[in-house]
DNA sequence: AGCCTAACGCAAAAATACTTGCTTTAAATT
DNA sequence: AATTTAAAGCAAGTATTTTTGCGTTAGGCT
């Protein structure tokens, strides 16, 4: 045989541990405060020993980084309600809810100059791109139905930006009603054009 | 005399220490890696004893929070051009520029991480409180002139939020033209009401 | 089925981070 | 300029976090 690497072993148990740990991180991030998260907590919740966490990930930041990159590659669906307003409202309300958990704060942080990925630098923009494509598809559907949709940029600026803004600066999420209000504003914008 | 409070003493030395610490934090934030920042480092750089940092700020997050709040309220003062549109455009363009500096990105990140009030203190969520007062004054001026200004919330959502959004998600600041376009959008909103 | 060893669990040690009691400095008050 | 006492300094604690050495478990291989 030629030059062998240490011969990793990513099979059964290792994968199981990884899954348990990831799940614990996401769960804790959903309920607990950001600052309260710690290696010790993740260990307790996941049933995986602290030592393992330290040996496999080294630091909490690296672990979170791992979790985030994994989840970012999974796209969550934009639904099709049949009308532009319906689609937009469903999306806006969904984001308003999602954005309330510390989990999204982490995503946010990762999105803007993410933490340091040790080895390769996995593309984070892909998430935004993918999501952007989905939203664009939603707008295209509306156009195909004969509606007069806004541009993607307008959607992002008028609806999405304020939702994130609320969380970052007011530290409180916008409610569903407020989210729908933003959609109103967006639609009013295109109606007058 | 009636019930006296502990009688604070914010004078000379205290202010000096505070200034030294703030300067150290900003410097370190500029050069050092994000995660490397620690109470110990700030203490060493500023020449202020660790104990003082712990006693005055409690945690690193609270300290950063303090620094960020201060700097955010200092930057981009609101000017009086005589018309609502003029004021808004001046402000929007100014923010678009400010937000382009690399240090702002750091502060933004810090803002997201730093905001969690430890026991006792009311949540210092609103970094823009002071700024909000200034902006409200600007809107009030417009109303006094007989113009029909938007609400503060509308201003924040329609103009400010997208400016920050650009930096965070597109990783590039909005140009002056774009900033003015946002002001147009805001004014169109109130015109139609 | 049996061997080899990567990956995990455990407990104890090492390293950091934070707190506490007391002393010293200097802002404010008289 | 003397007095008072918040706020800072210091050093010695306590607590928490991270590392380390070694025994155990269970993938992957023949």
UniProtKB/TrEMBL annotation, chains A, B:
Keywords of the record: DNA-binding, Transcription, Transcription regulation
Domain HTH tetR-type per the UniProt entry, residue ranges: 15-75
Molecular function, one GO term: DNA binding
Xref: SUPFAM superfamilies: Homeodomain-like (SSF46689), Tetracyclin repressor-like, C-terminal domain (SSF48498)
Domain of life: Bacteria
DNA-binding region, residue range(s): 38-57
Pfam family, one: TetR_C_11
Gene3D superfamilies recorded: Homeodomain-like, Tetracycline Repressor, domain 2
Protein name from the UniProt record: DNA-binding transcriptional regulator, AcrR family
